[in-house]
Specification:
By secondary structure, this protein is mainly beta. It has 2 helices and 13 strands; from the N terminus they run ααβββββββββββββ. The strands form 3 sheets. Strands 5-6-7-8-9-10-11 form a 7-stranded antiparallel β-sheet, with no helix packed on it. The protein has a 4-stranded antiparallel β-sheet with strand order 1-2-3-4, with no helix packed on it.
C-alpha cells in the first residue's frame, strides 16, 4: 500500500479533488463493510495557537485490487480572506477498513480537542477494543502526546491511559461479571511512570501495532 501513496498523493492532495468528493462517509451498521471513496471525516479547530481555525480532512480512497483504502490526512489553513488552502499532509494515524475484525471498518471519529488531532477506533469480535490517539503540532511535526486503550469482554475491561508528554500512565481493571455469575471484583487502578525509547509521529503511526512491555504489570500493552 505504501508504494501506491506517492502515485496517488498528487491527486489526493489537490483542493479541487477534495471539494468534488462526497461528504463524510456513512459509518452506519450497513456500511461498515462496504467502504467507498470519499471524505471519511473532517474536523475544525485551532491547531497551532494562531487564533484561527485549521481544518483536518481524512480521505478514504479505495484502490482496486487492494484490501485497504488509502487514508491520508489533509490539514488546511485559512488565508487572510478566510479561504482554505492545503497546509500539510500526513499518511498515518488511521487504520484500514478491514482491520476492525468482525465489526468491520474500525474508524470511529476524527476530532480536534484542546489543540490536538484526536483519532478514535473501535473493533474486535468477542473481545473488543477502543483506541484513542492524540497528536499535537510542535512547530515541525505531529508527535503522539496521549493514548487511551480499552479492551476486553463485556463487564471485564482493562484500560490504559498514557500521557506520552510526561510519561505518566494509569492502568485500570474493571471487572463486574465477565459474562459469568462470579462475584463482582473490586476495581484495580495503578499509576505508572514509563520511558519510551522513540517518539511516535502522525505520519508513520499505525494504531494498535506498537508494543509497550510494562514490567510493573507483567504484561505488554499494544497501542
Amino acid at each position: 500500500m505504501k508504494k501506491l501513496i506517492p502515485i496517488l498523493l498528487p491527486l489526493l492532495f489537490s483542493t479541487t479533488l477534495y471539494a468534488s468528493m462526497n461528504g463524510p462517509e456513512d459509518h452506519s451498521e450497513d456500511n461498515r463493510f462496504t467502504p467507498v471513496s470519499g471524505v471519511l471525516a473532517e474536523a475544525i479547530g485551532d491547531l497551532d495557537k494562531d487564533g484561527k481555525d485549521e481544518k483536518v480532512v481524512a480521505l478514504n480512497v479505495v484502490v482496486p485490487g487492494q484490501p485497504n483504502a488509502v487514508r491520508p490526512l489533509l490539514i488546511f489553513k485559512q488565508d487572510e480572506y478566510d479561504n482554505w488552502f492545503l497546509w500539510q499532509t500526513r499518511e498515518g494515524g488511521i487504520l484500514g477498513s478491514d482491520q476492525g475484525g468482525l465489526l468491520g471498518d474500525p474508524f470511529e471519529s476524527l476530532e480536534i480537542s484542546r489543540g490536538a488531532i484526536v483519532i478514535k477506533h473501535f473493533g474486535g469480535s468477542a473481545q473488543k477494543w477502543n483506541y484513542t490517539h492524540r497528536f499535537r503540532f510542535n512547530g515541525t511535526e505531529w508527535p503522539l502526546i496521549g493514548t487511551t486503550i480499552k479492551y476486553g469482554i463485556p463487564g471485564c475491561y482493562e484500560i490504559f491511559d498514557f500521557n506520552l508528554a510526561n510519561g505518566k500512565a494509569i492502568y485500570t481493571e474493571e471487572k463486574r461479571n465477565c459474562w459469568s455469575d462470579e462475584e463482582v471484583q473490586p476495581q484495580l487502578s495503578q499509576k505508572l511512570s514509563i520511558e519510551l525509547d522513540k517518539q511516535h509521529t502522525l505520519n508513520t503511526f499505525s494504531p494498535g501495532s506498537n508494543a509497550l512491555p510494562i514490567e510493573q504489570l507483567g504484561k505488554t500493552i499494544y497501542f
